[in-house]
Amino acid sequence: MGIFHLKEFDTQPILMVALVNPNGTPHDLTVGSPSVKLHINLANDVGKMTRQMTINDASGGIVVYLWDRITDWDTPGNLFASTAHLMDYEVTRAISRVTFPNDGYDTLSILRHITDD
Known about the structure:
It contains no helices and 9 strands.
């Protein structure tokens, strides 16, 4: 599982994830018109966020999310919890659904921006 660090209001670096099957191979996103969503379970029962991801490399299982300064930072509650937020990635097709990583979660650490602007 990976840890992704971001500061409040930042839109870079983008979130780039390699979806890997349990056997270590890249998850194939070339068949079945998959849709990939990022799910973030915010710490301290603040809530959940779901965002659409973009497929960057279908055969390599690479997906990306570009942070949005308006919608991603307009979430109510405390995003700067001492406990990292849990993330996973959901791939859906017409008749299937699978989430990654399938043996845990990635984490998102958001640090407060120092200045007032």
